[in-house]
Amino acid sequence: MEFIKYLIDLFLHLDVHLNDIIIQYGTLTYIIIFVVIFAETGLVFTPFLPGDSLLFAAGAFAAKGSLNESYLFFILAGAAILGDTANYWIGHFIGPKIFHKENVRFFKKEYLERTHRFYEKYGGKTIIIARFIPIIRTFAPFVAGIGSMTYSRFIIYNIIGGATWVALFLYGGYFFGNIETVKNHFSVVILMIIFISILPGIIEFIRHKYAKRIEHSAD
């Protein structure tokens, strides 16, 4: 319960937490953010970590001069690309065993199945599209590694998706994060970013449920 409260506080007051980290750790902040982005994209049991919102907040602090936006871009694009690469190979080696089990500790099979449906609909572009959808973002490279895509094809989508995702949110925070209205309602903006990020997943879930209902009524 305490951990859940901490996560909620982390998301709601990301600006405060990041500011404290910068003050306390200085240049080590780059490594801390690198690790969070790497884990959020690279480990299937940590999809709950901040991704979009952290990039936006980091960009806002870079605009203040607390961090360097160029360093952030290359470091975090690297974290995103390496995270997906690690996730791909984890999926390649252990994914097939997990995919065929009903109950697996640390993550839900439902997420794997939802990501698999994404592949059926969008193909290889899933790796790029998934960058902008929490949960799916973490599971897409894992499912790709199970056998949906060759690595040579995967790495191209990975680089394009990782660099685009980081650039969009990081520079979004850099250019808009310090506008007075945004600064005064930073927590609300972060929540809006999270909501907009998960909106495609919500729409897809509703569509899937609706399609199932129609299918059952037809039977």
From the structure above, extract its key features.
mainly alpha; single chain; 219 residues; 0% strand
SSE topology sketch:
Layout: H1 2-12, H2 14-25, H3 28-42, H4 52-64, H5 69-99, H6 109-122, H7 126-129, H8 136-148, H9 151-176, H10 180-184, H11 186-218
Can you put this structure into words, describing what you see?
By secondary structure, this protein is mostly helical. It has one domain. The N and C termini lie far apart (43 Å). The protein contains 11 helices and no strands. It is globular. The relative contact order is 0.15. 81% of the residues lie in helices and 0% in strands. The longest helix is centred in the last third of the chain and has 33 residues.
